[in-house]
């Protein structure tokens, strides 16, 4: 069963002669529990696609359905709720708040939603990601790999349906990168989530259930 379905997504940047087509009628269907890697060169449109799937930007045309909901028919407040509840984001640069401990950073999405944190779930996530003994530490006290593990826990804490990861190993060495991908893969299987990962690294992509290549704004 498809948890996410994008149809004919089109996105332009600029106007007139300087207009660039970032996405050119991209259609994509992802099954529940699937790990999909989207690969392509810099400027191919893969990050733009991820922004569309996460409703961080709207397409110029096309549709996106997630868990049966028509995402781009929603108003901005509803889109913000969708991003908080349905989608977990993992970024290349971690984006941890330096004045908060690892535990506090993980709980940010729950706090923003005014919800009560599931502390038992947090403990399970920390154990799965092997950061239990680092929860009281601040980001500057963590290695790059540990910071990325904290960022993954933050993406998963609200129990979203879909995890979107944008070059999550881009700032890590090859060994740490491999570990992060294996942790992501095992975590989504354990917690019945779906992972869409953007990468330019074909070695990282080989861990996925399916690899999609994007070039000049089109799936090829």
Into which percentage range does the β-strand content fall? Answer: 25-35%
**Low-pLDDT regions:** none
Q: Can you count the helices?
A: 8
- The CATH homology group name: P-loop containing nucleotide triphosphate hydrolases
CATH topology: Rossmann fold
Roughly how much helix do the residues carry, as a percent range? 25-40%
Q: Identify the overall geometry.
A: globular
CATH class descriptor name = Alpha Beta
Radius of gyration: 17 Å
| CATH architecture grouping | 3-Layer(aba) Sandwich
How many E strands? 10
How would you concisely characterize the structure shown here?
With 220 residues, this protein is an alpha/beta fold. 33% of the residues lie in helices and 27% in strands. The longest helix has 17 residues, at 174-190.
List keywords for this structure.
single chain, 220 residues, alpha/beta, Rossmann fold, 6-stranded mixed β-sheet, 4-stranded antiparallel β-sheet, 8 helices, 10 strands, 33% helix
Structure description:
It is a single chain. The model has no long low-confidence stretch (mean pLDDT 90). The chain has 220 residues and is an alpha/beta fold. A hairpin with a 2-residue loop joins strand 9 and strand 10. The strands form two sheets. The chain has a six-stranded mixed β-sheet, sandwiched between helices. Helix content is 33%, strand content 27%. The protein has a single domain, classed as P-loop containing nucleotide triphosphate hydrolases (Rossmann fold, 3-Layer(aba) Sandwich), CATH 3.40.50. The longest helix is centred in the C-terminal third of the chain and has 17 residues.
């Amino acid at each position: 069963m498809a948890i996410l379905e994008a149809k004919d997504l089109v996105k332009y940047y600029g106007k007139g002669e300087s207009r660039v087509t970032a996405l050119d009628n991209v259609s994509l269907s992802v099954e529940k529990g699937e790990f999909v890697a989207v690969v392509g060169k810099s400027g191919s449109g893969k990050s733009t696609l991820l922004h569309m799937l996460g409703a961080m930007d709207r397409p110029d045309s096309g549709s996106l359905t997630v868990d049966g909901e028509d995402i781009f028919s929603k108003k901005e407040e509803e889109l913000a709720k969708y991003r908080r509840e349905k989608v977990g984001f993992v970024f290349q640069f971690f984006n941890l708040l330096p004045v908060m401990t690892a535990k506090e950073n993980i709980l940010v999405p729950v706090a923003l939603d005014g919800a009560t944190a599931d502390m038992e779930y947090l403990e399970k996530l920390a154990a799965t990601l092997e950061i239990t003994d680092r929860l009281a530490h601040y980001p500057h006290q963590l290695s790059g790999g540990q910071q990325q593990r904290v960022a993954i826990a933050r993406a998963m804490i609200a129990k979203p349906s879909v995890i979107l990861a944008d070059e999550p190993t881009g700032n890590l060495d090859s060994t740490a990168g491999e570990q992060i991908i294996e942790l992501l893969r095992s975590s989504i299987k354990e917690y019945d989530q779906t992972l869409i990962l953007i990468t330019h690294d074909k070695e990282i992509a080989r861990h996925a259930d399916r690899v999609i290549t994007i070039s000049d704004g089109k799936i090829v």
